[in-house]
Amino acid sequence: MYRYIIRRLIQMVPLLIGISILVFLLVHLSPGDPIRMLLGEDATEEDVERLNAIYGFDLPLHIQYFRWLSNALRGNLGVSIRQGIPVTTLIFERMGATLELAIVSVIIAILLGIPLGIVAAVKRGSVWDYLSMIVALLGVSTPSFWLALMLLSHVALKVEFLPMFGRDGSVFKGLWILVTQFRADELLTGLRYVLLPAFSIGASMMAIITRLTRSSLLEVLGKDYIRTARAKGLGDRIVVLKHALRNALLPVITIVGIQFGAMLGGAVVTETVFAWPGVGRLIVNAISQRDFPIIQGGVLMMAIIFTMVNLAVDLSYALVNPRIRYD
Amino acid sequence: MKQLLRSKSALTGLIIIGILIFVAIFADRIVPKDPYEMDIWESFRPPEGLRGEYILGTDDMGRDVLSRIIMGSRVSLLVAAVATGVSLFFGVTLGAVAGYVGGTTDAIIMRLMDLILAFPSVLLAIAIVAALGPGVANAMLAIAIVRIPAMVRVTRSTVLNLKEEEFVVAGKALGLSHTRILFRHILINCYAPILVVATLNMGTAITVEATLSFLGLGAQPPTISWGRMLALGRDAIRSAPYITLFPGLAIVFTVLGFNFLGDGLRDISDPQLRGR
Lengths: 327, 276
Known about the structure:
The complex is a heterodimer. Chain A has a domain at 94-277: Orthogonal Bundle (MetI-like fold). Chain A has helices spanning 2-28, 34-39, 45-55, 61-73, 87-122, 127-141, 144-156, 171-181, 185-221, 224-231, 236-248, 250-273, 279-288, 292-320. Chain A is built from 14 helices and no strands. By secondary structure, chain B is mainly alpha-helical. Chain B has helices at residues 2-6, 8-25, 27-30, 65-101, 103-117, 121-132, 136-163, 166-173, 178-186, 191-214, 226-234, 242-269. Chain B starts with a helix and ends in a 7-residue tail after the last helix. At the A-B interface, α1, α6, α7, α12 and α13 of A face α5, α6, α10, α11 and α12 of B.
């Protein structure tokens, strides 16, 4: 087991180096000269050269890369061209909001998807089964940002409880306050703001979870050990929830992990729709302003988080499922 | 083909896609109004239904929403088709080589794919277009790049399975070249799973294209695309929510069609997975 973990960690190194090279090159593929864009057409050649020297754009590409990488490793991702604020500061201010959004989306998807999948499998051919099928089909076919727009115009505009834009307080901080001080107000405010954006991102994952829970549970319910359990005279509820579900949920866990990246990607656009103050919106705004250090830093951070989550999922899967081979 | 028509889901998908292709090809003939014509006096007319002048209403510039949706189908389908075609070509080639040759070549190709998969795909597509500059061609390229790994994986695993089959061994014994065995004998036998992934990729490509256009990174004005219609309609979301409703429904309808077809094809090619 330890050897497996260490091997996976070592495998991460070339991947992370690859990610850094790709992110670095991405910006240098760009046809426009950011300095010229920043200074406008009236800029003198001298000004351009001076700023190029400050940002290091005049050095050979590989030297620029190593400089950028050694800075990045020390937590310095450069300074925003437009705002003059360190990129790391900008990203860390917003990372919490993005992670909160992604995590709440996953929780919503699990809380809705698994029960619906269970009901669909147990009551096969019933109204619930068809409902789950429709949810699954629509969920994977609906772009999250359009769902966000629809929730905005058809729910947020009509239900006063759910605000249209922004974020107020943090759900996790609210949870902490609830546990320590028995006050629910902060949690409630946080939830009011996060609910709609999280649902629009989580809908597709909910669809996938519903479908997978259903098919996986159906398969497990046909196994011999379930028949044995039933033959022992155990009730339906215990057989399904205690015996079958445990095995049926293994593929669901994997999918949750794989889909987490899609959540982060979906969050990028949904954040702009709901004016959610996260990294996604930061990146999208930076793109329209051609603020390359922010784009670079933002994409890099998202990719690193994504990779870490995938690693965590792989490792936890190995823990949950003792049958996995470590070699 | 017979099986295709017997599968309910594949048939539904085929019908939807057939309608869409028809609409896209004859878009300029079936539009009820000129999709580009602005008329400020007619702006924000709500949907009037089939009998009305503006069936799905008008946008902020008084342009007919239905005509614009019909016209917009062209860009969506074209971008998705070209992007899927490109990812199909490179994905199948790389996947086939990786699976057939194995060893270091395989390792290099697969590590490159891991690298692409290390980014959330929508974010990578956005970043690529942001770097290359907005536009239809760059959007196609970006979508193609993020969809290549799926093609490579499915091709590689099918080729790996077929590599040890008797007909391949026979081909080698006959002294056929590796290229000939791979591209004439092996690939011809693994079209089914590749076709499934390509079909499902079309749906994803439509979504990503809409996302890019929504962010202003895809088709540029005056070209009409569904994503851009959503972006424009967003400003009027309080007063005229229907402007964002209908182009979105068009996207859902299209993606649904490809998902139906993909699922149906999978059921046919792999009966064990039926009903999943």
